[in-house]
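Design a sequence for this backbone.
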């Protein structure tokens, strides 16, 4: 398979997986709002291995957020947050502490907490530092839990088994 085809296939599969896993989380009421535990966020580590992960995650998020209870703002803000987090994940992948790409792993946690925290503050029409922290903290903790429980093991698995050796 040539590189362009591989790139498109990887991005498309990542987008489809993101949508499917978000819908699984949504069926438990955990995909939208301040309490988020999106299984799809496990995939935010994929830009470490392929640049297709950046756009695959962003498109997947955009499609998944079409069903968001927050409306169009979630499509725009969520997609922007996912795109920015993917870019940071990709471009900081070589910054490692004890061989762990810590900046890349924590970027989606921080970016999503900030963006979604502001988004939730906006839609609730409740402004200020305390409302922001109250809304952003659960997003941060949910994202951190998903990355810790799923994202880090996926990263280790992909590194150890060289699964994406045909990466772009």
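Sequence:
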């Amino acid at each position: 398979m040539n590189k362009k085809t591989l790139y498109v296939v990887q991005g498309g599969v990542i987008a489809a997986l993101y949508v499917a896993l978000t819908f699984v989380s949504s069926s438990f009421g955990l995909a939208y709002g301040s309490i988020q535990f999106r299984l799809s966020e496990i995939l935010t580590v994929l830009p470490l291995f392929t640049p297709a992960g950046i756009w695959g995650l962003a498109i997947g998020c955009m499609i998944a957020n079409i069903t968001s209870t927050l409306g169009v703002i979630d499509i725009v803000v969520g997609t922007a947050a996912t795109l920015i987090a993917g870019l940071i994940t990709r471009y900081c992948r070589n910054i490692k502490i004890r061989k762990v790409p810590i900046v890349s792993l924590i970027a989606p946690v921080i970016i999503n907490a900030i963006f979604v925290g502001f988004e939730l503050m906006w839609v609730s029409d409740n402004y200020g530092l305390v409302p922001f922290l109250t809304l952003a903290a659960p997003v941060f903790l949910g994202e951190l839990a998903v990355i810790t429980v799923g994202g880090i093991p996926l990263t280790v698995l992909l590194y150890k088994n060289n699964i994406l050796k045909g990466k772009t």
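The chain has one domain: 3-161.
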